């Protein structure tokens, strides 16, 4: 029997990049280590942001540089972090200090 520990992470206030990634992983419904447009839409919807469906589409256009339909590389995550800071009002710092 496996024992799982769940940490509830919600982007309020300031968070680190690792905390942002942890929050985003909650929405990786197929557990493939990549974030699809649908998963990103659910993540942004959870923030209760106006026009979340549109912002998720814009985020994919900005971050999915190889147009695979998934956020799946460190470079794409970095682009998503930048998008979240500029357009979703999430403050993300580079380190915990």
TrEMBL record:
Annotated Pfam families: EF-hand_5
Domain EF-hand as annotated: residue spans: 15-50
SUPFAM superfamilies: EF-hand
Domain of life, source organism: Eukaryota
Key words of the record: Calcium
A GO term, aspect molecular function: calcium ion binding
TM region(s), chain numbering: none
Name of the featured protein: EF-hand domain-containing protein
